[in-house]
Specification:
With about 325 residues, this protein is of the alpha/beta class. The protein is built from 9 helices and 14 strands.
Length: about 325
């Protein structure tokens, strides 16, 4: 994709949200602000929580269980917005019910679980894609276009980081093994996916992490190697400290800095001839999730079974890298 589509132009589908937490709030806000998508139903394990969410976003149906949500014939696609540890089971539930799915990142906790869901979706002829919303943001589409055009020359290296410490409390889900927490699965997936978008799937990974008492990584740095190209890049994340949450990519003809790369952001180019350029998109209506929602609706309408900007095959490969990173830092899940 080299052009930036209008999210409001995508054909409207009827969405069911499975989970009523913070990320579901963000998507609902964006759907209302920038798309024609239909928020049809919300499902939660608590009927009261589902009803509160439905009232907030004028959603006609509130379901007190996930089973009730996926069984509804008036839902075309289910967005999985539950904790990391529940993605596999919840996505399987939706697929078994015959629903297309958009699954919040990280897709699953293991590559084996990702393969299982991909096979099930394929067998049923259903759409499945990881909700890596950053792939659909206007600045990322423009950066991808500029790289493909050779504006930066041959890419040599990149660095991306994402650190947040909103609630430095070990009872928070970010620090929970049982919920699939940790720095890299919650935050580092963004730098990893950003680099993979520009360089491709890394051939090697080398990880160094600082673990916290709950047994997950609090801070981590990962070197992503591309020996066939003779280059490497660095992804890092933290749930212990706030970081600039910025990224840059450099090639033989210049570099591009992206502050706040994981959300709608400007692009700052500096070229080898001394010239500079800033690119910025003014059309983001809300938090920016509207582009992902619209792209999913368009792909399903077009009969695709995964989205080409974040195909299920790439998600499976990335899950394999996450497995290797966990092995290197000694992180095992409580399952």
């Amino acid at each position: 994709m080299t052009h930036i589509p209008d999210p409001a132009a995508a054909p409207p589908l009827r969405w069911g949200f499975l989970g009523a937490g913070m990320i579901a709030d963000y998507l609902a806000e964006s759907a209302r602000a920038g798309t024609t998508q239909i928020l049809q139903a919300i499902g939660s394990r608590s009927k009261e929580k589902a009803q509160a969410f439905a009232d907030k976003y004028d959603i006609p149906v509130a379901c007190g269980s996930y089973e009730e949500l996926v069984a509804r014939p008036d839902v075309d696609v289910v967005y999985i917005a539950t904790p990391n540890s529940e993605h596999h089971a919840n996505t399987r539930l939706a697929l078994e019910a015959g629903k297309n799915v958009l699954v919040e990142k990280p897709f699953t906790l293991t590559q084996g679980d990702a393969i299982d869901l991909a096979k099930l979706a394929q067998a049923k002829g259903l759409f499945i894609t990881e909700a890596m919303w950053t792939r659909f943001l206007p600045h990322q589409i423009e950066l991808r276009r500029r790289v493909a055009n050779g504006d930066l020359g041959d890419l040599i290296t990149a660095v991306a980081d994402f650190g947040e410490c909103d609630i430095p409390d070990f009872s928070n889900r970010f620090f929970s093994k049982a919920l699939g927490g940790g720095s890299f699965y919650d935050k580092g997936i963004y730098p990893l996916m950003w680099i993979a978008d520009l360089f491709g799937i890394p051939q090697t990974v080398q990880a160094r992490a600082e673990m916290v008492p709950t047994g997950v990584d609090g801070h981590i740095s990962v070197i992503l190697g591309y020996p066939d190209q003779g280059v490497h890049a660095v992804a890092q994340s933290s749930i212990l400290v706030q970081t600039p949450a910025a990224a840059w990519v450099a090639g033989t003809m210049g570099y591009c800095e992206v502050p706040g790369f994981w959300s709608p952001a400007p692009l700052h180019f500096s070229f080898a001839d001394g010239t500079k350029e800033t690119w910025e998109w003014a059309g983001v209506a809300s938090r920016g999730y509207e582009y992902e929602l619209a792209a999913t609706a368009q792909a399903i309408t077009d009969g695709l079974l995964t989205h080409p900007l974040i195909p299920i095959e790439e998600t499976i490969a990335i899950q394999g890298l996450l497995d290797e990173i966990r092995a290197q830092i000694g992180l095992t899940w409580n399952q």
